[in-house]
Design brief:
alpha/beta; two-stranded antiparallel sheet; 37% helix; binds zinc ion
């Protein structure tokens, strides 16, 4: 097994999610370079009680977005401040760096795992990608992340519980009202015998919450009592 791992390390060297350099022997167990770790900025308190975004000086309890708009999910958890991980997120999403999920999923479990357990999350589900798009890209980064998070926490991951039924436009190109229209009827429930009460939806990025809301709505319509979501970062989107 060890020999196999060594060979696989030679062919697919593990890379640091921050600098994308091949990890040294020393850093391999941490899945990140020691020097790179301080470059990642975490979202700090005070955070929005609803979506988990860091609050500005003039905001209390809820961010301006959450005060304006009601969400279908109960509460969100977000880990990184987007600008500090922008390049990393891009490679994770578009350049095949699925290995970053190892670090990201573990980091998420370390930061939020205790809260997820306290809530009593029964299943982790990734925000689904449209099947044709996933075939083209070869993977869904949210699914890679969910797999690691579920494994770390010992919570089952159900990847086809919700399906994306249409090709949606990239959210960054759309106005807020177009975003909602873009996601209308975009998701359907893949299993109807749902007995789950509390579900965690996982994605790489949280922007306005439109996607999390759309997924939360189909889950709730199917009888799930509480839907939470966890995103790696909060930002304007890729
Ligand atoms: Zn590095
Ligand atoms: Zn908020």
């Amino acid at each position: 097994m060890r020999a196999l791992n060594l060979i696989s390390d030679l062919i697919f060297p593990r890379r640091c999610p921050v600098c994308d350099g091949v990890l040294s022997e020393r850093d391999r167990k941490d899945l990140v370079c020691l020097e790179c770790l301080p470059k990642i900025k975490y979202i700090k308190s005070p955070k929005c009680y609803k979506c988990g975004k860091q609050l500005g000086d003039d905001e209390a309890e809820y961010c301006a977005d959450c005060r304006k708009k009601e969400h279908f999910f109960e509460r969100g958890f977000a880990l990184y401040d987007y600008p500090s991980v922008r390049h990393s997120m891009y490679r994770f999403k578009y350049s095949g760096r699925t290995e970053y999920a190892g670090f990201f999923g573990r980091d998420m479990a370390e930061h939020f795992g205790a809260e997820f357990k306290k809530i009593g999350i029964e299943a982790v589900i990734p925000v689904p990608m449209y099947a044709a798009k996933k075939r083209m890209r070869g993977y869904n980064q949210a699914e890679e992340l969910a797999k690691v998070l579920g494994r770390e926490l010992g919570i089952p991951v159900i990847k086809d519980l919700v399906k994306r039924t249409k090709k949606t436009l990239p959210m960054k190109t759309l106005s807020p009202s177009e975003r909602a229209a873009n996601l209308k009827n975009a998701f359907i429930i893949g299993q109807f015998e749902l007995k789950l009460r509390k579900i965690l939806v996982v994605d790489d990025i949280y922007t306005t919450g439109c996607t999390s809301d759309a997924v939360a709505k189909v889950l709730k319509d199917a009888g799930v009592n509480e839907v939470y979501f966890a995103a790696l970062s909060v930002g304007e989107g890729l």
